[in-house]
Amino acid sequence: PAARCSDKKSGLCNSLIRKNEAKVVTMVDVEDIADKAAFCRCWKTKNWPYCDGSHAEHNKVTGDNVGPIVVKRN
Ligand code: FES
């Protein structure tokens, strides 16, 4: 089957974040979010779990269209 993620050789989504762990699970306390927080969904950020804008380069290189999820407090 075709690779479904950005690493075309291996099919891996995650090539750099917490690779020593079997599964990356991130807990964020909603009380720690001020007004809003942008969470990375492209797995290319250098500031996991937050978006640092790295998705823009990823999209440019791969033709993908991914971006963060933004959690906002009312
Ligand atoms: Fe990954 Fe922005 S850096 S979504």
Concise synopsis of the structure shown:
This protein has one helix and two strands. It has 74 residues and is low in regular secondary structure.
Query: Uncertain spans, ≥5 residues at pLDDT below 50?
Result: none
The order of strands across the largest sheet is 1-2
**What is the string of SSEs from the N terminus onward?**
EHE
**Percent helix range:** 10-25%
Number of helices: 1
Mean pLDDT, as a whole number?
89
Main structural class: little secondary structure
The biggest sheet amounts to: 2 strands, antiparallel
Radius of gyration: 14 Å
**Bound heterogens, unique:** FE2/S2 (inorganic) cluster
Count of strand segments? 2
Q: How large is the share of residues in beta strands?
A: 5-15%
Tell the overall outline.
flat
Straight-line distance between termini: 43 Å
